[in-house]
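> tool_call: predict_assembly(chains=two)
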Amino acid sequence: ETGVTQTPRHLVMGMTNKKSLKCEQHLGHNAMYWYKQSAKKPLELMFVYSLEERVENNSVPSRFSPECPNSSHLFLHLHTLQPEDSALYLCASSQDLVLSPLHFGNGTRLTVT
Amino acid sequence: QKEVEQNSGPLSVPEGAIASLNCTYSDRGSQSFFWYRQYSGKSPELIMSIYSNGDKEDGRFTAQLNKASQYVSLLIRDSQPSDSATYLCAVTSRSGGGADGLTFGKGTHLIIQP
């Protein structure tokens, strides 16, 4: 596989469920990101990891918990979500933090019921 | 608060014409500028990057950057129906030694009319 892969592609969960989103990059990049995309809103940066260290937490509620076990894998653990958390969640990677473009995965379409 | 502004459109352009997409940004310290294309239901894909003032051409696409005016644009020549998509402007900067990732605009919805 090449590029950035995300699983699952679609997820429906209740407000009391716990689930995790998975992202894997095969590009040898050093930085990984979680973004949220809601209708009529710009892409919102949630978390940034550089060489497995979190460097940015963009005021995200604690019901979203990221994990980066190594430079190729990134998880987003979800618990007690709200219906307004329904959105497209995009993982991305880049060679470095500032000058390099992002390469996105296909995203996970999350619906919270 | 760093902001990236785009006209949301829709911008309707006849096939074969030049489509012009514009973007302004608020952070004067911004260093890297990108244009992404996003088809409905798909993830964004990078089409152009530009780092210094002036024009950068790649095939039918030309990116233009003016840091003094805090303005970046994308021109698409010989527009094709397959160019119909939402175009996202993205800007990156470093503040206080930390990393902010990319700040995105809301995107401009472009429609190429056959």
